[in-house]
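Summary for the steering committee. One of the milestones for this cycle was to obtain a three-dimensional model of the protein with adenosine monophosphate bound, which we needed before selecting residues for the alanine scan. The sequence and ligand used are listed below.
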Amino acid sequence: MSFQSLGLSEALLKAISKKGYTTPSPIQQKAIPPVLAGHDVLASAQTGTGKTAGFTLPLLHILSENPKEKYRPIRALILTPTRELAAQVYANVKEYSEFLNLRSAVIFGGVNQKPQAATIRQGIDVLVATPGRLIDLESQGLLSLKRVEIFVLDEADRMLDMGFLRDIERVMKLMPDKRQNLMFSATFSKDIRKLANGILNRPVQVEATPENTTVDAITQKVYRVAKAKKTDLIIKLITDGNWKQVLVFNRTKHGANKLVEKMIKAGIKAAAIHGNKSQGARTKALAGFKSGSISVLVATDIAARGLDIPLLPHVINFEIPNISEDYVHRIGRTGRAGANGEAISLVSADETTFLRDIQKLIGMKLPVEIMEGFEPDPNASTAPIKPGQNRRQQPKSSKPKGDKSKSRGGNASSNSGGRNRTKSKSRNSDSRR
Ligand code: AMP
């Protein structure tokens, strides 16, 4: 299948060819036709599948086909959970609309709102936003969503995970009832389906990879290791393998910082990316990682979400996630665009239960190895880390009323930032991760 056969306009085809894409990815092949036909779409796709173009291209096509108004009300809203993802989606919107007469803007927390408000005031067709800043600007009367024709909810599962349910519901009320809705999510929990039911109108469902399964191109491996030896083992793996681009997942911001310090001492070019880092530091770390001046990026789950890092050969779970779906997200960062990837998990005794849960979710047993000199501690307890020890938790606030599904851990003091936030604080929540 070609992009031409999808019925996209010449201006879009020109931008696509400038990007160097020759064939639409599976999610693009499946999602673009129903979006162009005006349907609501519920798409199962994670980062790396080309999902952004999957909704951006048809959205731009629809907007450019319809007559423009002089003052340009916001006609399309793309809501994303994190600043990084918002910036990446916006970069895509800009590139794909290069040859169209459409204007766009991005808004997110953590930076001065004035330039954002000024851009919106001049008139834009497409707005990419994180929920907190969007609601802030709207409540100050600096933008209106009353003319939105197309609403995209990107990474809906992460939106709920970050406690944005109330904010999403609020945003929905600011838009006209009659509009086209597109929802993208990597996983489909009960909560996500419930949210989809509330937003989408008889949606066409499309899927890029089977739900909650890991991609075949990824080699997965577990090293059983004593907790105290994890740092030495990860340094050995990276150094011996001479790995140049490794994404490492850590549960906490503090743990990520500590690991980076030790890696730097060992001569590895590493940087951390998490919610306590300023926007500038995060952008710099990501740029360094992409350019090769940084070999190892140590990230927390939320900070890593949506990062556009093509062709990532290695992902290492320094700690495996207590939320099994996060494992699927994490390892989805490898094996992109047809390249092979390797996902390694360092598992200590207290993570045994989490490993079992992950294997249950992905429906396979992961091959286990033990590295000589880094054996697991035979006396260590296999009891899982207890509540209060920085395990990530499904936020209460993201659960629709009546949901009885279990929460999976302790308090939310780790990388979840302001999950237990109060309503008044919620505005700036996206600036804290
Ligand atoms: P996404 O899942 O939207 O984050 O996209 C993942 C990566 O795939 C990005 O680097 C895109 O630029 C790239 N990409 C998107 N569509 C295509 C395509 N049709 N052919 C090749 N690369 C693509």
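Key point for the committee: The longest helix spans residues 51-65.
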